[in-house]
Amino acid sequence: MAASINHNEMRNANEKLVLQQIFNNRLISRTQISKNSGLHKSTISSIFDSLFDKNLIVEVGEGESTNVGGRKPSLISFNKKYGYIITFDIGRRHLRMANFYMNGQLINYKSIPITQNSGEIILSLIKKLVVENAINDTIFGLQGIGLSITGVIYKNKITYSPFVDFSGIDLATELSNEFNVHTILENEANLSAIYLRDFIEPNNPQTYENFISVDIHNGIGVGIIIHNELYRGIFGGAGEYGRSILIDRENKILTEELFSEDALIAQAGELSHNDTLERNEFLDMYEEKNPEIIYITKKWVKNIAQILYNLFQIFAPEAIYVNSRIIFHEAEIYKDLNSELVALNSPIPTNLIEPKKDIEYSTLYGALALVTRSILDLSDNFELTFSGD
Fold first, then answer.
1. Residues 223 and 194: beta-carbon distance below 8 Å
2. How far apart are CA 46 and CA 54, in angstroms?
3. Residue 63 has pLDDT above 60, yes or no
4. 123 to each of 14, 117, 128, 160, 175, how far by Cα in Å?
5. Could you tell me if 110 and 93 are in contact, meaning their C-beta atoms sit under 8 angstroms apart?
């Protein structure tokens, strides 16, 4: 009995290894998988039969023969049309959604304004969008739902949500029961870090196994990657930097109340006597060289540099990525940030690295990566590279 269990475990591990090789290469042959994995060709052929039966892989033609001639190798690809995944980013003022094939190819994208903070209303809207945005050209249809949340997630449940009232709502269970698919919730900063690990890092000339992703939007969150794995901390609370406490005249003030993008925009709103000032209006004022806006932005950038400096002292990462629509909207602001770090004698070994894709999409791609791993049963131990085409 024990020998049978060990054989099954070995077979399962080998199948995952082969699937990883196929997923990470647009086209690959049995011979190349054997070279990459060390598995015997006969073992790979047997696994191929299983993966073909599951419709996870497809044969897509022939490769080049070797220098000595012989039969051309059959080329195999991951079947992106196995099914599709839909992901959502639930923000303070928006609900973004995207459909993807399972190799990471974007099918469609929408952004819907949110005017209420009712979890029930948002759950109903999500269900409606899942039905309305069904994709009909895959074999097995919808395979998973991923959700990005501003707040804390523990065991796939929301334990803290500052902008949307999800109290009494088990979002993952509701959607899993409704659509009978894998449903995963995760913090937005964590998903930004996953996106960087699975989409950006594999394509960088120099890759990092230990880095942090700092999201500065409504609040300030940090996604932490240690040895290529996401670090969530106890009860999922790691990285909630914006909730760290500052003391001002014996009053407790949260860091994000002073230094988030929302805090900066609110300050600009007070100066311009506009309590509904939006980010785009703020950026217009900056571009128009409004002196008050320039002044408070430079002061804000100085504080952000100090936050990044402190984060480096705590984590000593190989790199720090920053997600901020304001910082990367203007080259001058980004330049000021780097100058402030230099002035601090910052030990950060690289310049801050801007994500290569629009940051509006980063959490959606990160959620896709987590859901895909769940569907394929490939944990963080298996490096995945999403081709996106």
1. yes
2. 13
3. no
4. 39, 11, 9, 16, 8
5. no
